[in-house]
Amino acid sequence: MSAQVIDGKAVAAEVTARVKQRVEALKSKGVTVGLAVILAGEDPASQVYVRNKIKKCAELGIESRRIDLPADVTMETMLETIDALNNDPAIHGILVQFPPPKQLDQEKIIDAISPEKDVDCFCDRNVGRILEGRIDGFLPCTPAGVMELLKAAGIDPAGKHAVVVGRSNIVGKPLAALLMQKNKGANATVTVVHSGTPDLARFTRDADILIAAIGKPCFITGDMIKPGAAVIDVGINRIATPDGKGKLAGDVDFESAVEVAGAITPVPGGVGPMTIAMLMDNAVRAAEKAAADA
Asked: Is 97 a residue of the active site?
């Protein structure tokens, strides 16, 4: 048995094509979508992530504003920067590339961003709306991307046992909330397991849908997967190779998992492209709401 490989690049392209149509519809009404990206410091990985987001904005006709702050930026300056963007009508979405330098308080940064411009969907109000079943606003980018991948692959979570491996605020918790919604495309029975779960494999082997988001390379192996299950790999880790160049690997051991699963996402090329696609979707959603409220 060899699993269906879910092509995240192709699904992301479909999402961004729809987003571009909405960007053009807004432009016909005199509205240009504006997204501000704040980067503090010169972390190489963060630099790459920011460049990719700016590039995608350009492709879709979204006006991006990159704000680079020094690695020793103070909390006061960061908050002043965010406040100025909160009050700038040309900016519809704000994101701060995480992790920030150690002297900055990540929670205070999240709290400072206006909920109407919180396109990462990190603030307590936007996350709370999801827990209440109100999913008509922003959705967390990676979890929303996972839901889109399931939909595109024809995998309906309704009535299925979904096991989420990982309990982060960015992926695990909000993804569990989305999967359990009493809505079309959700309605799963959800179990969340994590580093403190005894005999974790007992749960993963019972999953019809298994989402790995624990941050450990190749942690989920083929013998931990129910035959025919859908496996979504959120992890992205750089591991050493004999040639010294290193390579990217997910939280799932792809080679053993692909022989057991019914469907699986690769790394790279699975969930990764979806995260940026859903960020763009949120930015346009923010501009649409601002235009409707004007």
From this structure: yes
What is the rounded CA–CA span in Å between residue 292 and residue 57? 22
Given a contact cutoff of 8 angstroms between Cβ atoms, the answer to whether 12 and 271 are in contact is no
Catalytic residue flag (residue 120): yes
Question: What are the backbone dihedrals phi and psi of residue 167, each rounded to the nearest 5 degrees, phi first?
Answer: -130, 30
Q: Which of 262, 223, 261, 220 is nearest to 237 (CA)?
A: 220
Q: Of these residues, 97, 208, 251, 281, which one is catalytic?
A: 97
Active site residue 53: yes
Render pLDDT for 164-175 as a digit per residue (tens, 0 to 9): 999 999 999 999
Whether 1 has a pLDDT exceeding 70, the answer reads no
> At CA 107, angle to CA 101 and CA 111, rounded to 5?
120
Model confidence over 72-82: pLDDT tens digits? 999 999 999 99
Q: Which of 118, 120, 233, 251 is flagged as catalytic?
A: 120
User: Which residues on adjacent β-strands are paired with residue 193?
Assistant: 165
Closest CA to 192 of 156, 216, 168: 168
Name the E strands within the chain: 4-5, 34-40, 63-69, 93-96, 161-165, 189-193, 209-212, 230-233, 237-239, 247-249, 263-264
Residue 40 exposed, middle or buried by CB count within 10 Å (0-12, 13-18, 19+): buried
